Amino acid sequence: VAKSTGEGEARLFESSMETKADRERLLRGELQNALTNEQFHLDFQPIVDAETGKIVCCEALLRWNHPKLGSISPTEFIPAAEASGLIVSIGRWVLEQACNDASRWPSDVKVAVNLSPRQFSGFGLAASVAKALAVSGLTPDRLELEITESVFLSDTDDNIRVLNGLKSLGARIALDDFGTGYSSLAYLRKFSFDKLKIDRSFVTDVAVSDENLAIVRAIIGLGRSFSAIVTAEGVETNDQCDCLRVEGCDQLQGYLFSKPVASAELIPMLREAQSGQFTATCSAR
Ligand code: C2E
Ligand code: MG
Ligand code: MG
Ligand code: MG
């Protein structure tokens, strides 16, 4: 157990980080306090309409700033929160915070929230979403819920029932990291997604690799066939942007437009961007 002095704790953290398993155990323990001690916050990353350059949605991305360990990546702490089950209460907090923030944005901007498969077990998810909408007053069609196909790896039928429940609340469902899973196509038959998000790994080389271009083109075609919006993740360069626009991708997200930003920074961006801030970012089609 750590001494109450800062130095003692710092030493404890350093020595605890020796192995990956130790680090994971440390994070799991610390996650317990993170919620109550308000160490979490949300950043938001704009997603723009590929035609107009206007911000149409902002994705909520969870951030953990630990007083001693500093900022910890969600790719590291989300798996730890999933393993411990804490993701359920953390996820509820994310939903509530994201809906509250979005209720203060222009009404034509949606908010996207990532859901972990663990949040699907039990019957609490639809109730949490309904509560977050009711408390914030956010209209349901402004809430997008992003899932990955890992949701379909277990309890498929139950999880599809939950997804249909979320849809009947009026929320939109997006399939995140599309193309990276084992059998993404099979899931398109099982559930009618409102949006497909092309994984960054295909976007990175879209302008220089014929294979990646072919995959991106196919996903855009699939989206069209299933009446789903197609969003490209991880757009960093003008070449990628131009290419995706030519292919008819509906929405674009990436550092080229904006990194994830804190809520206070987002509000003035939304005000400016509604007059087409990002229109000139990619050269015209
Ligand atoms: P994701 O949902 O696919 O989110 C997109 C990730 O790509 C974010 O990383 C974002 O910062 C990053 N990104 C966006 N544009 C670019 C770009 O142009 N270039 C590059 N290199 N990266 C870009 P982040 O914030 O580290 O989040 C990583 C993952 O953690 C997310 O992937 C999501 O799976 C998970 N995550 C984040 N917040 C939450 C949450 O509230 N709940 C759950 N369950 N998972 C979350
Ligand atoms: Mg996402
Ligand atoms: Mg993604
Ligand atoms: Mg991704």
From TrEMBL:
Domain EAL: 24-274
Protein name: EAL domain-containing protein
Full-protein interval shown: 690 to 974 of 974
High-level lineage: Bacteria, Pseudomonadati, Pseudomonadota, Alphaproteobacteria, Hyphomicrobiales
